[in-house]
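User: I've been trying to design a sequence by hand for this structure and keep getting stuck. Would you show me what you'd pick, starting by listing the structure so we're on the same page?

Assistant: Good idea, let's start from the same input. This is the structure you sent:
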């Protein structure tokens, strides 16, 4: 599988994770018998909703081999290295698939290879 698609799938999975966390927090807040600070709820939704949006849009860009998505993914991967042990594993895997650039072989096939297959 091409590296940009691997990165896109990782970010898509992380966006689902953060989206579900946000949804579960909203449900828990509504169903809670205890009063939860509205300011804390807003902070939580901004942080995790923002993480959802960041991973979602990075996934979309990575699936289209956008250079900004590769750079964003590298930045996210570097931050994830601090999240030992799971974040570190995901961060290393993202770095392995984003460094060195993305060769868009599907959109720009090598003419030499194409001629030899004919």
């Amino acid at each position: 599988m091409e590296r940009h698609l691997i990165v896109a799938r990782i970010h898509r999975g992380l966006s689902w994770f953060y989206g579900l966390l946000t949804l579960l927090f909203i449900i828990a807040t509504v169903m809670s018998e205890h009063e939860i600070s509205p300011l804390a709820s807003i902070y939580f939704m901004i942080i995790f909703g923002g993480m959802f949006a960041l991973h979602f849009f990075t996934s979309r860009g990575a699936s289209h081999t956008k250079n900004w998505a590769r750079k964003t993914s590298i930045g996210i991967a570097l931050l994830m290295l601090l999240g030992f042990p799971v974040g570190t594993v995901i961060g290393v895997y993202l770095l392995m698939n984003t460094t060195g650039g993305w060769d868009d072989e599907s959109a720009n096939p090598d003419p030499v290879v194409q001629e030899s297959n004919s």
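That's my pick for every position. To get oriented when you compare it with your attempt: The two ends are 23 Å apart (CA to CA). The chain has one domain: 3-103.
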